[in-house]
Amino acid sequence: MEKFVQLTLSGVANGAIFALVALGFVLIYKSSDVINFAQGELLLIGAYLTYTTVEMIGLWWPLGVIVAVALAALVGVLIEQMVLRPLIGEPVISVIMVTIGLSSLLRAIIGAIWGVTPRTAPQFLPRDTIALFGASVSVDRLWAFALALTLFALLTLFFRYSREGIAMRAVADDQQAALSMGISVKKVWAVAWAIAAVTASVGGILLMSIFGGVSGQIARVGLLVFPVVILGGLDSIPGAIVGGLIIGLLQSFAGGYLPPELGMGEVAPFIILLFILLIRPYGLYGQRIIERV
């Protein structure tokens, strides 16, 4: 029972972080039909920017985190304006290839600025353990889950009550109708990339604190975005949350109960991805699109 509780809480905390990163992926896809293969590098950018502002510059860590997240949002806007906006009207495969190239470019830029040697990161989350349901649980996982839930709540309020959030929902529903109502689709795309960069950065910061350092391992977590969004649905925000929790629990249980030499903790999410693509390619909550020819 103790091991089950530990794996469950760890899986839920990891799943909340996965869902944060997947949320940015879904927002970009819903607003602009772009599949962003560089989401993992946005995680890494947020982590390294936080390392720079807090460790290298020496800012008080709450201020350093805010500055780092703001800079990451600016990076997201610049990517949208300089790389993707010129591709409006181009074939989907061209945009996909550009985001793949963007992933390699961002990784090279990160390596050129910060190097490839892992850096010891500041600890924002407490590393103590507490007894919960008879199991010893790390407090940093609970904090990560709570912070992820808080960000989800803030984003929900943003989408429901702010003008920009309502405009994003309109563009996601019908771009032509949104244009006819005077909504700037290009502005919405820029906001979507900024939010995607912010959610990825927060996920990267939480992972940096949990891992105790910042390195390319954080970007590898971005690979799990794809099983999450395919499972939940490419165009579904609730699906990103549900998919993140399912993949987080699956990874935790597979890694905890199966022999470690099998490496199923890393492989299991992609096995599920394969089955979802074969059985329900539009995901649990994704919109089913039927084209007649």
Automatic annotation (TrEMBL):
Family recorded in the similarity comment: Belongs to the binding-protein-dependent transport system permease family. LivHM subfamily.
Keywords: Amino-acid transport, Cell membrane, Membrane, Transmembrane, Transmembrane helix, Transport
Listed Pfam families: BPD_transp_2 (PF02653)
Membrane topology category: Multi-pass membrane protein
Transmembrane segments: 7-29, 59-79, 91-116, 142-159, 188-211, 217-234, 241-258, 264-285
One GO CC term, this protein: plasma membrane
GO biological process, one term: amino acid transport
Gene Ontology terms, MF aspect: transmembrane transporter activity
Protein name: Inner-membrane translocator
Highest taxon in the source lineage: Bacteria
Compartments where located: Cell membrane
Stored InterPro entries: ABC_transp_permease (IPR001851), BCAA_transport_permease (IPR052157)
